[in-house]
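Pipeline run #58 for the internal structure catalog. This entry was flagged by the ingest filter as a single-chain record with no existing model, so it goes straight to prediction. Upstream metadata was stripped on purpose; only the residue string is passed forward. Reviewer on rotation: M.T. Logging verbosity set to normal.
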Amino acid sequence: MNEKAEPLENLIRNWRTYCTEENFIGIGSSRKVYKVGERVIKVHLHPIGKLQSQNEMAIYNEIEAKGLAPLFAAVYFVDERISIQSYYRPILRRDNQSFEIDGDKDAIWIPDRYEDALLELDREFDCFDLKDSDNYGLNDQGKLVFIDYGMSKSLYENMWVPLAEAGVLPQIEFDICNGCGEKKELRMYGEEDQDKRCYSCGKE
């Protein structure tokens, strides 16, 4: 079957069959992502993940009306369990970690109206953490596209931070993995968590 042409209705109905280790491409604190052709399925690991996905759909619908849609991954579907978006190739990490997009250093990636999009996200949608490289993909022209843009400042401060401090959601720590011995981003659950293994070594 041609994944590129996979009907949206089939992805929605049979999403679990596509969420395999072979299709896995990334995990955040509240969502896990799988690639299926030119789309991704984001599985909500926590209710905050669902709220992020709902925010992304609302933002995309408004952004589209303002002519900024090419700078954002399209959102096709959101429900309690998943969201479905367009796929864009990832930005390679530097030294095994994400980094802040710099308008001068990373000028080759900056698309037209990028500053307009940043302003809109900040002013109209209260978005948080807008320049982290993990929040972007690259389109066919090698330009930035927002792929993770649903975390608002209020959602972060009022819900994410308390849950992270309580060890319910993971915070990211850049340290040596006790499994592979490489310095990587580790998912740490509260101050008492001593399991310093990366995702590749089995820790989600």
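catalog note: The chain has a mean pLDDT of 94.
catalog note: The longest helix spans residues 47-65.
status: ready for reviewer M.T.
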